[in-house]
Amino acid sequence: MKSLANEFFSTMAKGAESHQSENSDQYDLVVNGIKDERDVSRQVALVEEMVASGVDAIVIAPADSKVLVPALRRAIEAGVIVVNIDNRLDVEVLKQEGVSIPFVGPDNMAGAKKVGDHLAANRKGDKVAILEGIRTSYNAQQRLKGFEAAMQEAGMEIVSSQSADWEMSRANTVASSMLSEHPEISGILAANDSMALGAIAAVKGAGRAGEVQIVGFDNISAIRQAIEDGKVLATADQHGDQLAVFGIEAALEQIQSQASGSDVSIEDVETPVDLITAEILSQP
């Protein structure tokens, strides 16, 4: 996985571990993650370590959509089944490397569009800013497109769009600068909930709590509380606790397929992504 410092990925790990404990007769599980979302070289090294240790399958949420592909190609050549979750690997690089890796995950653009549409429908103004994820990540690119589509459709102006590398502290710094440079900002669309938390701190620091609406993506527990407290308007739930499970089940299916001699390739699987608002959280 990516950074285990991010609650979304620690939740993903717990979901995988829970699934394994309930299916301990079917497979053994090794959980790994990197400390920093940008530490792509460490994630490449983890892939190589797992191959060397003799695993049968790797389920990966890549920190970078392009850089991980050669390492995963080598894993496949070594006989390891690879399933891509969360952040889709780059299609062109996969073609260049001559490999096909199934993607199991949500439509990030559609999820971000739902969140953006909700902000537009409840807006306090027409000027917004976007906190992007790491720009080489496919899911960051798709969420940006979803936000942009929602704002364009609603006739709202994006006055600033910058990357905060998925990180809370970086988002606090970037959002603070945005609010200082563009005091007319009435909404901030954050491509993940960690950055939304940073935006909350920035808005508070600017003395604009209650004036600037914030939306996120991931539905971590801290954001659910912030939604209930009125500090965040909405987020998108891509069911992180189940995302790794969907990938694991796809990998197990492929292992069983190979064992039976049929060796049927895994197809891409689109998983759910749902809008989360205060109204939804208040439902029993």
TrEMBL record:
SUPFAM superfamilies (UniProt xref): Periplasmic binding protein-like I
Listed InterPro entries: Bact_Solute-Bind_Prot2, Peripla_BP_I, SBP_2_dom
Pfam families named among the record's database cross-references: Peripla_BP_4
Domain Periplasmic binding protein span(s) in chain numbering: 1-257
GO molecular function: carbohydrate binding
Places the protein is found: Cell envelope
GO CC, any one term: outer membrane-bounded periplasmic space
PANTHER family recorded: ABC TRANSPORTER PERIPLASMIC-BINDING PROTEIN YPHF, D-XYLOSE-BINDING PERIPLASMIC PROTEIN
Family label: Belongs to the bacterial solute-binding protein 2 family.
Protein name: Ribose ABC transport system, periplasmic ribose-binding protein RbsB
